[in-house]
């Protein structure tokens, strides 16, 4: 058998490298598409949880926001475990913050008698998805709510202002439930601070549908809440949870 010459070997390696370079981006896009789909399913499940809660609450409103400072997520005491049995759906599978200790107790200083390493509702944070509990449709409203929550206590906000959509379209407030965002992917100003690439996020709307929106580097009501203003205010909040939730 004739031995392979150096140039033949080099050509073979070059072809292999070229095929690998062409294949890897496609594989990465496939994996991201699967994670994005899983994330969308999480949001749809949470939409069902919110409506179940609202249908049994006075005023048919969605849950209030968490009382923990900087934690833009539903108050887990209102939905867990009666309406939500598996809180891990609050963790986006493609988030850079996801790890084996997500939502689990790391210490028992404030939770004596509990088992370490187990899920606890006090540890659910907005590092994955963001929820304000208010009917917001513009960057200016999100900025105002963010500024108000920085100086006011949780008791000053009360319940959510998001209501179950009326059956009669004529009775629905503006913006319509189809356009009213309820819960969305945490999208940071920095690329490595976001759940998905290309930069953007899934959004759950009040009528229950979920759509992916590209990130807007400016104020645009049509792309709210996946905008720079929301990313630099509400989304950028660092939840101040119980110290038992941190390593």
Describe the structure.
- The chain has helices spanning 6-55, 76-79, 139-151, 228-232; strands at 129-131, 181-185, 200-205, 210-214.
- The protein has 247 residues and is of the alpha+beta class.
- It has one domain (34-245).
- The chain has a four-stranded antiparallel beta sheet with strand order 1-2-3-4, with helices on one face.
- A hairpin with a 4-residue loop joins strand 3 (200-205) and strand 4.
- The radius of gyration is 22 Å and the shape is globular.
Order of secondary-structure elements:
HHEHEEEH
Indicate the percent of residues in helices. 25-40%
- Give the CA-based shape: globular
Could you tell me the mean pLDDT? 83
Instruction: Identify low-pLDDT runs.
Output: none
> Which band does the percent of strand residues land in?
5-15%
Strand numbers in spatial order across the main sheet? 1-2-3-4
Q: Quickly count the domains.
A: 1
Structural class: alpha+beta
Radius of gyration: 22 Å
Separation of the first and last Cα atoms: 61 Å
Give a quick account of the main beta sheet: strands, pairing sense, barrel closure. Answer: 4 strands, antiparallel
Counted by DSSP, the helix tally is: 4
Q: What's the total count of β strands?
A: 4
């Amino acid at each position: 058998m004739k031995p392979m010459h150096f140039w033949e070997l080099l050509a073979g390696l070059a072809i292999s490298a070229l095929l690998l370079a062409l294949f890897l981006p496609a594989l990465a896009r496939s994996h991201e598409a699967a994670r994005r789909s899983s994330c969308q399913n999480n949001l749809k499940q949470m939409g069902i949880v919110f409506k179940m809660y609202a249908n049994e609450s006075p005023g048919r409103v969605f849950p209030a926001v968490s009382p923990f400072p900087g934690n833009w997520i539903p108050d887990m005491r209102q939905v867990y475990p009666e309406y939500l049995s598996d809180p891990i759906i609050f963790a986006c599978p493609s988030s850079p913050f996801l790890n084996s200790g997500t939502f689990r107790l790391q210490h028992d200083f404030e939770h004596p008698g509990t088992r370490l390493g187990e899920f606890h509702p006090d540890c659910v944070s907005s590092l994955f998805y963001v929820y304000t509990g208010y009917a917001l449709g513009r960057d200016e409203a999100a900025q105002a709510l963010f500024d108000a929550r920085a100086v006011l206590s949780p008791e000053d906000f009360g319940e959510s202002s998001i209501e179950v959509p009326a059956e009669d379209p004529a009775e629905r407030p503006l913006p319509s439930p189809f356009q009213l965002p309820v819960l969305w992917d945490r999208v940071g100003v920095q690329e490595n601070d976001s759940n998905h690439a290309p930069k953007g996020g899934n959004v759950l709307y009040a009528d229950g549908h979920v759509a992916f929106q590209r990130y807007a580097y400016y104020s645009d009501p049509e792309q709210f809440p996946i905008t720079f203003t929301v990313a630099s205010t509400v989304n950028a909040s660092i939840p101040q949870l119980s110290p038992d939730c941190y390593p």
